[in-house]
Amino acid sequence: MGRLFPGVSSFARYLLTFALDFAHGALMMSGVLVVVFGVYQAASYGLQGLNPRTMFGGAAPSHKRTPAEDVVPILHTRSEAPLDSSQARVATTISRRYRLSPLVADELVRVVDQEGRTDGVDPLLILSVISVESGFNPFAESALGAQGLMQVVPRYNSERLALSDNAMESLFDPVSNIRIGTQSLKSFIASSASLETALQRYGSSTGVTDVGFVTRVLQEHERLRQAAGQPAGGRGTVAGASVRVPNS
Question: In this structure, are residues 151 and 210 in contact, taking their beta carbons and an 8 Å threshold?
Fold first, then answer.
C-alpha cells in the first residue's frame, strides 16, 4: 500500500496543475471576450454602448451614433437649415475657445437659437451662461447637485422636470437641459429690475457664490456679440432687460 502513495500524490498534483491551467486559460479567454464585446458596443453605438444599463439591462440604441452625439448626446434639432453667417461665426468661436467639435458647436447653436426664440431670451446670453456654468460639458455636476450644460438644480425645477419624458436623466440631455435652463433664466429676467440682478439670481440658484459670475457671463456675451457682428461695447438690450457690458 505504501508504494501506492507516491502515485496518488503525483496524480493529485497533475489534477491540481490541470485545474490551475484551465482556470488561467478561462480567465484569459473571458478577458478577451470582454474586450471584444466592449469594442463592438463602442463601434456600434458609441460611448452609450458602454453604459452598463445598455449592455446588460436595457435595449440597445436603435441607431449608430455620430461623432457629435458621442460628445453631446441626443442633439436632435427641429430644423436642419444651415447656420446663417452670424450663427456660423458664433459656432466657430465656441468651437475654438472651448475645444468642441465643429459639428457639436453647430448643433448647440441651433438648439440654443430655437429655445431662445421660443422663450424670448437672447441665444447669445444662453450660450454665455453655458460657457460660465459648465464650459459646455453636458455631464457637469456640482457638489450641490446642479447638472448639465446650464447647471440646473432638480429640486428648483421639479415642475419643469415633470413635463420631461425621463426626468431622472433629462438634465444630462443637452436639449432638455437648455430648454429647462432657458425657462428658468427667463423667469429670473422677467422678475428682476436688471439683467445683472437676474444673472446673479440665476447663478445663486445653481450654487454659484462667486461675485464675479455676472461679470464673466456679460464679458462672454460681449465676445459672442462681436463674433456675431453685433455692435460692441456700451449698453445692450437682452430680452427686455437693459444691461451695461463691462470691458473685457
Answer: no
Q: Which residues lie closer than 8 Å to 162 by C-beta, 6 or more apart?
A: none
Grid coordinates of 140: 457637469
Report pTM.
Answer: 0.64
CA end-to-end span of the chain, whole Å?
A: 96
Which neighbouring-strand residues pair with 236? 243
At which residue does the C-alpha cell 457637469 appear?
A: 140
The predicted-structure confidence for 202-246, as pLDDT tens digits, reads as follows 998 888 878 799 999 999 999 999 999 998 654 444 444 444 444
**What is the CB neighbour count within 10 angstroms for residue 23?**
10
Give me the architecture of the 67-244 domain, per CATH: Orthogonal Bundle (1.10)
What percentage of the chain reaches a pLDDT higher than 90?
A: 42
Burial of 173 (0-12, 13-18, 19+ CB in 10 A): buried
Domain spans, the chain: 4-57, 67-244
